[in-house]
Amino acid sequence: MSFTAEIWQENAALFETIRTMPFNQELADGTLSQERFRHYMIQDAHYLIAFGRALAVAAAKADNTDEIVQFAHGAHTAIIVERSLHADFMEQFNVSPATFAATPLSPATHHYSSYLIATAWSASYPVVLAALLPCFWIYAEIGRDILARAAKNNPYDSWISTYAGEEFHAAVRGVIATVDRVASVASAETRRDMHIAYTHAAKLEWMFWDSAYRLEQWPV
């Protein structure tokens, strides 16, 4: 069994919890409130900036030129997607640049962003990749799951298409292959740390969607 097959199997129950959580159920049904989706979009745009930074650090730590290109391109794509959110989704849902700039990171977004950046700087290359993998892989699987059961004329069709599309899934398969490559030559201790990093980030994926559903704000 490959390393990524191991971590997927180990976290299968967590994925099912994410797949069936209220945010994703209502997104598929097309009944998710605009207020909740707007909260999610703003926080996702903030998050993608941090994700891009973490990918750039991963590129700098890569041990071969192909993977430098792979993760540098991933960082570039994360920022392009963040900008497209402003140009498309945020305009559609009446979020002005001033509103975005004035909206702080929610506690969950702050936690997830801080975790990825801290891990990118402090951990070994294999562990960094394991921490980054859930954002790729879980989004891809959730996107295709939602596409398969989405209501017709879903107001969130554009979002669903982005993460269910073949272009995104091809990139995800590339990251999975790289994680398997580095895991195949890693020590048992490093592989253990990769398991921990993946699971922690996967839990933060759940927290991110849950926080949008709850319209999470700082309590004080």
TrEMBL record:
Gene Ontology molecular function, alphabetical: thiaminase activity
One Pfam short name: TENA_THI-4
One Gene Ontology cellular component: cytosol
InterPro entries linked to this entry: Haem_Oase-like_multi-hlx, Thiaminase-2/PQQC, Thiaminase_II, Thiamine_Salvage_TenA
Domain (Thiaminase-2/PQQC): residue spans on this chain: 22-214
One GO term of the biological process aspect: thiamine biosynthetic process
EC number assigned by the record: 3.5.99.2
Pathway the protein acts in: Cofactor biosynthesis; thiamine diphosphate biosynthesis
Highest taxon above the source species: Bacteria
This protein's UniProt keywords: Hydrolase, Thiamine biosynthesis
Catalytic activity: thiamine + H2O = 5-(2-hydroxyethyl)-4-methylthiazole + 4-amino-5-hydroxymethyl-2-methylpyrimidine + H(+); 4-amino-5-aminomethyl-2-methylpyrimidine + H2O = 4-amino-5-hydroxymethyl-2-methylpyrimidine + NH4(+)
Family according to the record: Belongs to the TenA family.
Function, as annotated: Catalyzes an amino-pyrimidine hydrolysis reaction at the C5' of the pyrimidine moiety of thiamine compounds, a reaction that is part of a thiamine salvage pathway.
Annotated PANTHER family: BIFUNCTIONAL TH2 PROTEIN (PTHR43198), SI:CH1073-67J19.1-RELATED (PTHR43198:SF2)
The name this protein goes by in its record: Aminopyrimidine aminohydrolase
